[in-house]
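Async update (no meeting this week)

Hi team, since we skipped the sync, here's where things stand on the single-chain job. The sequence we agreed to prioritize is pasted below, unchanged from the tracker. I ran it this morning and attached the output directly underneath so nobody has to dig for it. Comments welcome in thread, and please keep replies under the output.
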Amino acid sequence: MPDPHSDYRLLDVPPGAGPLADEILLAAAIQEPVACLWRAAPGLVVPRTYAARPGFAAVQADFAARGCPVHVRQSGGGVVPQGPGILNLSLAQVFAGRPLDHSEALYRHLCTLIGDALAAFGIEARAQAVEGSFCDGRYNLAVPSPTRKIAGTAQVWRRIPGHAPDRHVGLVHALILAHGDPAELTARANALEAALGSARRYDADRIATLDRLLPPAERPGFPAALEARLQETLRTRPPLPTTAPARPRPEP
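Output:
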């Protein structure tokens, strides 16, 4: 069992690995807690539920032909865009017990890491749902006044072959909207929903890219500065404990 108090080992993602690059963490995390920061080429990423929709293969081929490939990920959630303006942060480690006992703590841990890094730039963010944003969930990161999503999160859990049945690797991922055009990002997600015959649509006003929250003079170097700050945060914050805190017993 890896040392629950060891630091994250930051892994390099091979060039051109694509938007599913963080799935390499699932195997590496068996030995020690690991993390990666990465970017992917423009495209869309969907959970496996989308791949089960009628006509998905034809829509996927059409989008690929138009230069917007659609990839299917192992984690849940909804449709999300990828591209150079999006910074991805993924963490993975071994846990003992049921994934349900660790899931919320792992989400909160990731949100806290990102929120602390953003605070260095004067950006206040908190975990909450943002209705109307793509891939909405309780553990988005959002900025207030008005409330807009600046990061989305998802998880995937895997049993560890050859280990006790209660040993799992938990991988949690954040898609951080570092810079870009909220209207263009949202339009790509809406185009896929329309092509699949879904009535679901997303509102560009419900997301924000982080660079647009800063003074213009600070925007050009922001993505690199944010990545450096996140790397420093990962070097100074320990992973979560391997075992979940005991739940209080109900009173007789």
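Quick observations from my side:
Helices lie at 25-28, 48-51, 56-65, 103-119, 182-195, 222-236.
Strands lie at 9-10, 34-38, 43-46, 70-72, 80-82, 86-96, 126-127, 141-143, 148-159, 167-177.
Reply here if anything looks off.
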